[in-house]
Design a protein that fits this description.
Length: 357
């Protein structure tokens, strides 16, 4: 018997909403009004959590948005993306505790380890910085005094007065595929996130991360970030996938991908490999379509099919260890409605804090 999973949607704060991939639509550009509508729709439809992504050139600020949307939602948790280094650590802890108060205990945290805008740091020290900040953030949000003299974090101070609603640090989600990133996740994260891949490859990643976490005496939850295209028939779903890229110019797609700060990462390279190994229609295995990656850095594949096929695909990932799904689709409101109609009723899920917390 399968345990309940967490099923999340995507807030599209980073100018990543299209009717036709790579063709900007002023009505879909990231704004308070449009992104608010996406989040509130996912809240009404029963999704457990929603990723609020973070960028610099792209879209609107995730932390400012989270503080506002917290008071405009009822049940959905907020998976706030935080880029390590952008905010002074003690102030970040205070900020996150405040947002959790505004959300009445519904905050979760997506830790991002990437270069800061206008500044480059080699991979190894960047992940060392991330580990130090994750440990420090956890201590302060746990209400503990922080005494550390690290390479990047040197503090001797008490935690802020304001605390999270449920005592302790909210779950920290983290993804990355380099050796340094995996070591960082094994030591400091609560949930390891992976991008769409074949079921076999996801299983291998989870087995690897379990072994790494055990080396630190820890256990992790596992999440999969993927796009969705679900229709009443497989033929309709495939037509919708083809329509999504029907107006995509190769140069425009490359430009969109190039604006991201992670374009040279190991994870992005793997997404490119998947696309290169796909069949002529872009499918790397049954119901896993790589066309999204033609104009998107990061998660570059979609689960495509009829409701039974899509549910079966998600359950196949669940059977190899996935505890949480962070899903998205184009357009984000329309696809949210379709996933809520065809998928959510057929997979047991829970908005309560997951078992890894």
């Amino acid at each position: 018997m399968r345990s309940p999973v967490e099923i999340s949607w995507f807030g599209a704060l980073c100018d990543d909403d299209y009717e036709f991939l790579g063709v900007p639509d002023p009505a879909l550009i990231s704004s308070w009004g449009h992104c608010r509508d996406i989040v509130q729709n996912a809240d009404r439809k029963g999704f457990d959590n929603i990723l609020l992504p973070s960028g610099y050139q792209l879209g609107i600020d995730s932390t400012a948005f989270a503080s506002a949307i917290a008071t405009h939602t009822e049940q959905i948790h907020l998976l706030l993306a935080v880029r390590v280094g952008e905010m002074w650590l003690p102030q970040l802890a205070r900020q996150l505790a405040t947002i959790d108060q505004l959300a009445r205990g519904r905050l979760t945290i997506n830790i991002i380890s990437s270069d800061m805008p206008g500044q480059a740091l080699e991979s190894e020290p960047r992940y060392r910085r991330t580990v130090e900040y994750m440990h420090g953030l956890r201590a302060l949000l746990n209400g503990e005094r922080l005494e550390v003299n690290g390479e990047f974090a040197a503090f001797n101070l008490d935690p802020p007065r304001i605390a999270t609603v449920d005592p302790g640090c909210p779950p920290m989600y983290f993804g990355g595929f380099s050796e340094a990133a995996k070591a960082c996740a094994a030591e400091a994260a609560d949930v390891f996130l992976t991008w769409p891949d074949t079921v076999t490859s996801v299983a291998e990643t989870i087995d690897d991360m379990r072994s790494r976490a055990e080396g630190f005496g820890r256990t992790l939850g596992y999440g999969l970030r993927a796009h969705m295209i679900v229709r009443e028939t497989e033929a309709e779903a495939r037509l919708a996938a083809n329509r999504l890229i029907a107006r995509l110019d190769a140069g425009a797609g490359a430009a969109i991908k190039g604006r991201s700060l992670d374009t040279q990462s190991v994870g992005v390279s793997r997404q490119n490999e998947l696309r290169a190994g796909a069949d002529d229609d872009g499918y790397v295995e049954a119901n896993l379509w790589t066309g999204v990656g033609r104009a998107r850095s990061g998660a570059g594949a979609a689960i495509v099919g009829d409701p039974d096929q899509v549910v079966a695909k998600l359950q196949a990932y669940q059977d190899v260890g996935v505890d949480a799904f962070i899903l998205s689709g184009y357009t984000h409101i329309a696809e949210c409605d379709l996933v809520a109609e065809h998928v959510l009723p057929n997979i047991e899920h829970s908005a309560l804090r997951p078992r890894w917390s």
